[in-house]
Design goal:
Keywords: Membrane, Transmembrane, Transmembrane helix. This protein is mostly helical. It contains five helices and no strands.
Length: 192
């Protein structure tokens, strides 16, 4: 029995989604290992007990939450074949993603202003872990931004419509994952 074009697209989409799930699960395992090492290291004598996250990290958290809503709006509007609103929401998501990165760097600057560095005699175990985990998250976010740029390019090339949304769906899945991951990491650092 021969497969129809729609069946082929459905299987292809399921395969891509499964691969994305495997990638996201492996990222969760990596961050779980790092946060576990953070918890184990908290018993060290040189651990800062009164370290607070910079204000810029709170702002960046709000920004990434908003960006998940805008990405979801892009997916919703393409499913309705509203290309202009989809363009708007994709571009707003891109701007918010860039703002997230900017506020992360502002947060690093605020940590440095407090006298804590990534390495060297002024570094602490706390800040070293914070830098590593935040930079790894940003590296994954850069991947998300590159995927978003590709999605925007393909959208303007009219590759997406109400029946072909796979690229935007995959991008939204990954973006929501990055959002949830950052929120969990932020809460972990804020309360632990």
């Amino acid at each position: 029995m021969e497969m129809t074009a729609q069946e082929y697209q459905n299987r292809k989409g399921q395969s891509y989604k499964l691969l994305l799930w495997f990638a996201m699960i492996s990222m969760v395992m990596m961050f779980a290992g790092l946060t576990s090492a953070y918890i184990v290291s908290s018993s060290r004598k040189d651990w800062l007990k009164d370290f607070e996250l910079p204000q810029a990290f709170i702002i960046s958290t709000i920004i990434i939450i908003l960006s998940s809503f805008t990405f979801h709006s892009a997916l919703t509007t393409i499913r309705k074949n509203d290309r202009s609103k989809t363009s708007f929401w994709l571009l707003v998501t891109l701007v918010l993603g860039i703002l997230f990165v900017i506020f992360q760097f502002i947060g690093f600057g605020q940590i440095i202003e407090l006298g804590y560095f990534f390495t060297g005699s002024e570094s602490t175990v706390n800040t070293s872990f914070l830098y590593i985990i935040a930079i790894l998250h940003m590296a994954h976010l850069f991947g998300g931004l590159i995927a978003l740029l590709i999605i925007i390019y393909n959208h303007f090339k009219q590759k997406y419509n109400s029946t072909q949304t796979l690229g935007i769906e995959l991008g939204a899945m990954f973006w929501h994952f990055l959002d949830i991951l950052w929120i969990l990491l932020f809460l972990f650092f804020y309360f632990y």
